[in-house]
Amino acid sequence: MREFYLRLPGPTEIPEEVLLKMARPIIGHRTNEFQQLFLAVTEETKKVFKTKNDVLIFLGSGTGGMEAAVVNLFSPGDTILLISIGVFGDRFGEIAESFGLNVEKLCFPWGKTYDPEIVKKAIYNDKEGKIKGVLVTHNETSTGVLNDLVPIKEILKDHQEILLVVDAISSLGAIDLKTDELGIDVAITSSQKALMIPPGLTLISVSDKAWEAVEKSKTNKFYWDFKKASANLKKGSTPYTPAVSLIFGLRESMKLIHKEGLENVFERHILLSRAFREGIKAMGLTLFADEQYASPTVTSVRMPDAVDPSKLRKILENEYRVFVAGGQQKLKDTIIRVGHMGYIDKFDIINTLWALGMSLDKLGCEVDTLSGIDKAQEVFKEV
Ligand SMILES: Cc1ncc(COP(=O)(O)O)c(C=O)c1O
């Protein structure tokens, strides 16, 4: 019997192949074997980022990667434009503020995407050219909204001096992020989401333009220093002890992703998320996020008035061993969030819908579970 089903938007389930690789005896990180492995795995990750830029891999969580971007690219007093559509967008702004940056905030209603016209105006109104960077979340995990970055690319086309910094923590490896094509200077992700390995790594791509900014940055930094990481990477090394076992795991997850084919991975996520959303609606439940921008990796489901999301999650966990996430901050009592990224297939969608329906039923909330499952199946049959 499966111990549990992890339908969180991170950490996500880990394929057996990856778990087995990580269980092998640890090796020294200054050995030739590790250095070869680190260089090879770094190259593999570039394909997932769709970049020719450098990719730096640090031991740290996604938030660490966001902080690393801020401290390496900017200096205290610099102005940046923050596009926020939820908790993680806000966090990016808080990190920048905590390092003395002047954060011009463009905050949009939760559950919706950003308005490109407002972004355009903010850039246009910056006559003195103060804005040094635009910080934006690709996939807002707190609401389940995917931001289309193409309009930002268009807006920044005439502002080559502005850096585009993207939090791709819950998208990279599941959603197509064309780092180079979109002109993204720094993209950040972490290991515990679509990359299908445990928490502990943050991966950061750095463009040539970003490296110029790194040279000018006056913010204090030590552990996150991009220059030290880059100098070490040239020798297949890291400045400090790396997460050796996670690198074993990353190598294997890269193999699995490339074996399935990156584009197939993206298609799978689109299909599974669509089936899940259609299933939810057919059950009689309501989606929280604007469907036009619904995330392929996480879905937020609005709870019926009579349902306490924390009680529902308890039943899901205790009776069906299904773990989903609650809403964050002001959405705590309003939604649940279901992750469907990384190591996930059709069966996971069907059993999650079923467990959700059964748990709601237990709470006395009538939903049409069978119609939900039926609808999800219909979506699967379309392809
Ligand atoms: C979009 C996004 N940004 C940032 C983070 C923070 O990452 P971590 O929890 O690894 O620090 C998360 C984590 O869920 C996320 O989904």
What is the CATH homologous superfamily assignment of the largest domain? Answer: Type I PLP-dependent aspartate aminotransferase-like (Major domain)
Instruction: Give the SSE order as H and E letters.
Output: EHHEHEHEHEEEHEEEHHHHEEHEEEHH
Strand numbers in spatial order across the main sheet: 2-10-9-8-5-3-4
How many H/I helices? 13
Using the coordinates shown, work out and report the CATH topology of the largest domain.
Answer: Aspartate Aminotransferase, domain 2
Helix content: 40-55%
- Strand content is 15-25%
Label the overall shape: globular
The kinds of small molecule bound in this structure are: pyridoxal-5'-phosphate
Task: Report the major sheet.
Answer: 7 strands, mixed
Query: What is the straight-line distance between the termini?
Result: 30 Å
The overall strand count is 15
Radius of gyration: 21 Å
Brief characterization of the structure:
With 383 residues, the chain is an alpha/beta fold. The chain is 43% helix and 16% strand.
Explain how this protein is built.
With 383 residues, the chain is of the alpha/beta class. It has 2 domains: 5-10 and 261-382, Aspartate Aminotransferase, domain 1, CATH 3.90.1150.10; 16-259, 3-Layer(aba) Sandwich (Aspartate Aminotransferase, domain 2), CATH 3.40.640.10. 43% of the residues lie in helices and 16% in strands. The protein contains 13 helices and 15 strands. It has helices at 16-22, 32-49, 62-73, 87-98, 116-124, 150-156, 208-216, 226-233, 244-260, 262-283, 309-320, 346-362, 369-382, and strands at residues 5-6, 54-59, 79-84, 102-107, 131-137, 139-140, 145-146, 163-167, 186-190, 201-206, 286-287, 298-302, 322-323, 325-326, 335-339. The chain has a 7-stranded mixed beta sheet, sandwiched between helices. Strands 11-12-15-14 form a 4-stranded antiparallel beta sheet, covered by helices on one side. Helix 4 links the parallel strand 3 (79-84) and strand 4 (102-107). Helix 1 (16-22) packs antiparallel against helix 9, helix 2 crosses helix 9 (244-260) and helix 5 (116-124) runs parallel beside helix 6 (150-156). The longest helix has 22 residues, at 262-283. The chain is globular, with a radius of gyration of 21 Å. The model has no long low-confidence stretch (mean pLDDT 98). Pyridoxal-5'-phosphate is lined by residues 10, 61-63, 88, 137, 141, 167, 169-170, 190.
